[in-house]
Amino acid sequence: MPAMDWRRMKTIEIDLDGSIEELFCPACGMEALEAGIRGWNPCEHLVFLTDDASGEVSYNAPGFQEKAEKFMKILSEEGELERAAKGIQMPATAFLMAVTTHGMACGPVSSTSYICFDMAGVPEEGD
Ligand SMILES: [Zn+2]
């Protein structure tokens, strides 16, 4: 499968006043994160989910743990979303969403989640 030309990647930025769990899979319409986090039975399009608050990989499809961790490592070290996305070779049908949510704790807080979908469904192999 051809690798995506990340130089032309569009960054999709979404600001939510509320929970990221309301995000739906753009391919099949399932509640992507509801299924992925709570039921651990995500739709076939969710590749991985990470966030900058924990720095951890919250979910990865079978065979994609290494790529999800590599993405977060590059992002934390270099701070550039596009460089991190380019650092993991993904099929041309895959894309990455950066969703920032806002709320109040002891003051205004925000965090960004990074969600990788593959419109064609998660490939059988991690690479
Ligand atoms: Zn889906």
Would you write up a description of this structure?
The protein has about 130 residues and is α+β, with helices and mostly antiparallel strands. The protein has one domain. It is about 25% helix and about 30% strand. It has three helices and five strands; from the N terminus they run βαββααββ. The protein has helices spanning about 30-40, 65-80, 80-85; strands at about 10-15, 45-50, 55-60, 95-105, 110-120. A five-stranded mixed sheet has the order 1-4-5-2-3, with helices on both faces. Helix 2 (about 65-80) runs antiparallel to helix 3 (about 80-85). The N and C termini lie close together (about 10 Å). The structure holds zinc ion. Zinc ion binds near residues 27 and 30.
List the topology elements.
Elements: E1 12-16, H1 32-39, E2 46-51, E3 57-60, H2 65-78, H3 81-87, E4 94-104, E5 108-118
Parallel strand pairs: 1-4
Antiparallel strand pairs: 2-3, 2-5, 4-5
Helix pairs in contact: 2-3
Amino-to-carboxy terminus distance: 10 Å
Number of alpha- plus pi-helical segments: 3
Bound molecules: zinc ion
Q: What share of the residues does DSSP label as strand, in percent?
A: 25-35%
Largest sheet: 5 strands, mixed
Q: What is the C-alpha radius of gyration, as a whole number of Å?
A: 14 Å
Decide which structural class fits the backbone.
alpha+beta
Query: How many domain regions?
Result: 1
What labels describe this entry?
127 residues; alpha+beta; 3 helices; 5 strands
In brief:
The chain is of the alpha+beta class and 127 residues long.
